[in-house]
Structure formats: structure tokens, C-alpha cells
Amino acid sequence: MQNPKYVMGLGSCTINGGMYFDSYNTIKRLDYYLPVDVYVAGCMPRPEALIAGFEKLKTLIRAGKAEGANEYANRFDWYKENQKAVIRDWDMPDYNW
Questions:
Q1: Where does the record place the NADH:ubiquinone oxidoreductase-like 20kDa subunit domain (predicted)?
Q2: pTM for the complete prediction?
Q3: Distance, CA of 51 to chain centre
Q4: pLDDT in tens for each of the 97 residues of the chain?
Q5: Could you tell me which of 22, 50, 58, 86 has the fewest CB atoms within 10 Å of its CB?
Q6: Residue 32 carries which DSSP code?
Q7: Residue 93 DSSP symbol
Q8: Sign (positive/negative) of CA torsion 45, 16, 27, 52?
Q9: What is the Cα–Cα distance from 71 to 36, expressed in whole angstroms?
């Protein structure tokens, strides 16, 4: 996929695991696996919250502060190790990384 890339975390589950925070098969924070530019809280987020999230993302882009894609490239090994830790049956060749 071509650059730029932006990530919005939608819902409480992406922030802290939501109501399933203590479940064995829930990752708690999306930002351990992908850099998140904007979070939109709620379960499910209301339409007004989504619009506010997109407005916040537009503001960050205009200010040059939406740097999630660059952060992913700079900390790739850290994100990759976190991703591998939650995928127990990692059956992907290393050349895909």
C-alpha cells in the first residue's frame, strides 16, 4: 500500500480491551501492535465521535503530526515482536517481514 497511512482505533476494545479486558483472547492495546494516530472511544462509537475523530486526524495531518507510518518503520522490530507474541501459531516465512 502506498504512503501515507493513518490508523484510527475505533471503540473501547482498541484502547484498553473494553469489556473483554480480562479475556484470554483479547489484545489490550492496539498501539502495542500498530502505531495509532487517533483513538475514538465508545462501544460502538457514536457517529458524532467518528466525525470528531476524522476531524482530529485531519488536524494532525495538516500540522504534520500524524506520524504513525513513520513510527512503524522506525520501530518495526518492536512492533513485529509484539505481533508475533500474540499470534501463537506463527506460520509466516521471515521474508514476508
A1: 1-56
A2: 0.79
A3: 18
A4: 677 789 999 998 888 888 877 887 778 888 999 999 999 999 889 999 999 999 999 999 999 999 988 898 899 999 988 888 888 766 766 655 5
A5: 22
A6: G
A7: -
A8: positive
A9: 10
My answer on whether omega of the bond before 8 falls inside 30° of 0, hence cis, is: no
Task: Name every residue whose Cβ is closer than 8 Å to that of residue 15 and which is 6 or more positions away in sequence.
Answer: 9, 29, 30, 39, 41
| Cell matching residue 97 | 517481514
The position carrying cell 486526524 is 57
- Three cell numbers at 19? 469489556
Top-tier CATH class for 8-88: alpha beta
How many residues would you count in the chain?
A: 97
